[in-house]
TrEMBL record:
Pfam families: Heme_oxygenase. InterPro entries: Haem_Oase-like, Haem_Oase-like_multi-hlx. The lineage of its organism: Bacteria, Pseudomonadati, Pseudomonadota, Gammaproteobacteria, Pseudomonadales. This is Biliverdin-producing heme oxygenase. It comes from Pseudomonas quebecensis. SUPFAM superfamilies: Heme oxygenase-like. CDD domains: HemeO-bac.
Length: 202
């Protein structure tokens, strides 16, 4: 994420979302790193717990027929199952749901959440390289960080192309932005919860 927080408001929706989430992304990036997820497999497993919780909360959005009408390959983009398999690889229990998941967001709000979930696949390119150092891979323990079929860049470009072409009212535009911010807040909550509930820290 390279947008400057002081830059003018960009004309493309995806760039505007990028801009308003710049600071939350930087904070989350620092928080992820503060938990040293690549120090050992146990630390990484807690990160996967957070990823699993986040992804599983978004299944209803990835499989929503109205959203699939807008983004035809949406269901295939979902990583909840990959994260669940990662947990099994890491011999980590599937966590209980955490109160406060997004529920029945408006279409525009849902798009903001999906923007964040899809965008997180870009950072995953860096994260998977570190996971390899723990003996993990796209087929074991770090499946949810795998490069999507067709490539990371292309997957992101096609998502943002679709997002940028949608006509939204001013209210919907604001709702999409709220969804994106809420998604970062939620991931932060889940990350803290995942590390707080680490078996070795209990
Ligand atoms: C739940 C949401 C997200 C999480 C947990 C997350 C996490 C991270 C982390 C930990 C890194 C650092 C990787 C490293 O330095 O080794 C990173 C980098 C990156 N992320 Fe995210 N991210 C999220 C959402 C997004 C979104 C929405 C976008 C784009 C719109 C994005 C784009 C990037 C890019 C391009 C990088 C590469 C380095 C940079 O330019 O800062 N991420 N992400």
């Amino acid at each position: 994420m390279t947008a400057s927080p002081t830059a003018e408001r960009p004309s493309l929706r995806s760039q505007r979302l990028n801009q308003i989430t710049h600071a939350p992304h930087a904070r989350l990036d620092a928080l992820v790193k503060a938990h040293a997820p690549f120090e050992n497999q146990a630390n990484f497993a807690r990160f996967v717990v957070a990823q699993y919780l986040f992804q599983s909360e978004l299944v209803a959005l990835y499989t929503d027929p109205e959203l699939i009408e807008l983004v035809p390959d949406l269901a295939e983009r979902c990583r909840a199952e990959a994260a669940r398999l990662d947990l099994a690889d890491l011999e980590t229990d599937v966590p209980a749901p955490v109160a406060g998941a997004v529920s029945h967001p408006s279409k525009a709000e849902a798009l903001g959440w999906l923007f964040v979930s899809e965008g997180s696949k870009l950072g995953a390119a860096f994260l998977i390289k570190r996971a390899v150092g723990l003996g993990l891979s796209e087929t074991f323990g770090a499946r949810h960080l795998a490069e999507p079929a067709g490539g990371r860049a292309e997957g992101w470009k096609s998502f943002t192309r679709t997002l940028d072409a949608l006509h939204l009212s001013a209210d919907e535009e604001a709702a999409a932005e709220k969804g994106a911010i809420d998604a970062f807040v939620r991931f932060t909550v889940l990350l803290e919860q995942a590390y707080a509930s680490a078996p070795e820290l209990a």
